[in-house]
Write a structure and sequence with these properties.
Layout: H1 3-9, H2 23-34, E1 46-51, H3 54-67, E2 81-88, H4 97-115, E3 119-123, H5 125-130, H6 134-139, E4 146-155
Antiparallel strand pairs: 1-2, 2-4, 3-4
Amino acid sequence: MDMKQTILTRRSCRSFTGEQITESECTALLEAANAAPVANGNYSDVKISVIQDQEFLAKIEAAVCAAMPAVGAHPIYHAPTAILISGRKGEGPNAAIPYCNASCIVENILLEATDLGLGSIYLFAVPAVMQMLPELCELAGVPSGFMPIAMAAVGKGTDGLAAREADRTKIETVRL
């Protein structure tokens, strides 16, 4: 799929078959993640945890659901793979950098998932709750001095992917 087609086809998938992604699909997603830009090229400020253990995913969902009932019982939407992006904690004017880095990384993962014909969704509530639960962070391999920031849930979607029409009016734009 060409880049424009991939961008127009990518959307949030909230219904997965439960079938695990293949090792080659996971490798492609991680290659896309590692191709993302990060501030000042400091890749050591970012860590990736690939979570495919279904019991651990269920434990994460239960913790998130307990802390944020509004997200529903399955905030990872039964996706068989969750890719957690953690960043080194920043302070002052640099506090937003880990979020910017994680956003670039997750978007690359989501676009690659679409190109592979996989469903995907950007999850923010799940890592936000994980930040408050050091035991989950430790189990997820989040190093000391880092915090979970963003997550991509990936798997075979129950609905097919179809391109949308480009719409330049969805976001208000000011041209100067």
